[in-house]
Amino acid sequence: MALQLQVPLTRSASFSSSCGSWTSNHSIVCLSGGGDQWSSARVSRSVLEKRREKIGGSRSLRVRSSLDVAVSVGQVTEVCKDTFWPLVKAAGDKTVVLDMYTQWCGPCKVIAPKFKELSEKYLDVVFLKLDCNKDNKPLAKELGIKVVPTFKILKDGKVVKEVTGAKFDDLVGAIEGARSS
Fold first, then answer.
1. Is residue 7 part of a domain?
2. Residue-wise pLDDT tens for the chain (181 aa)?
3. Is 18 among the domain residues?
């Protein structure tokens, strides 16, 4: 997972979550990793401007608030209980598909590569995945998970469809239905 937060250089900002905590007076703070393995990098404005020249256009979604949160499209982004709702909000009116899984689940492991393929196919959809471990249990409970894998399809921050089990065709149908509504 990669989580990008932009903060103004004019003030220092502190961030804290189960995914990590840090203080920055730099323009970009990036977290990457998942589970218990997180690393962060702080990028100054001059480095950012040089990177922007090299990279050109960005395939990111952004929402304006006190923080800017970005999600890359065309890939699956790992979320935790602290990053899920801000990323759903950042998606705006785009369809969001959440894969709720566990590390020990066989069917979850089987459908994971197919879920990644869907993220590369549907570039207008945001694909997220949540490991329903004990750290993320409050969010899993809030979303009403009963079995894994469970796929929640959200529009405008609300769950509009759910697919339980590793039912690929049902998942594709649910995504198609949400995209067309």
1. no
2. 344 444 333 334 444 444 444 343 333 333 334 443 333 333 333 333 333 344 344 444 443 333 445 677 899 999 999 999 999 999 999 999 999 999 999 999 999 999 999 999 999 999 999 999 999 999 999 999 999 999 999 999 999 999 999 999 999 999 999 999 8
3. no
Residue span of the structural domain in which 149 resides: 77-180
Q: What is the pTM of this model?
A: 0.65
Domain tally, the chain: 1
| Residues taking part in catalysis | 105, 108
- Identify the CATH number of the domain in which residue 171 sits: 3.40.30.10
Q: Is residue 163 part of a domain?
A: yes
Q: What is the DSSP string of the chain?
A: -EEEEE--TTS-EEEEETTEEEEE-SSEEEEEEETTEEEEEEE-HHHHHHHHHHH-S--EEEE-SSSEEEEESSSEEEE-TTTHHHHHHHTTTSEEEEEEE-TT-HHHHHHHHHHHHHHHH-TTEEEEEEE-SGGGHHHHHHTT--SSSEEEEEETTEEEEEEESS-HHHHHHHHHHHHH-
Is the residue at 69 inside a domain?
no
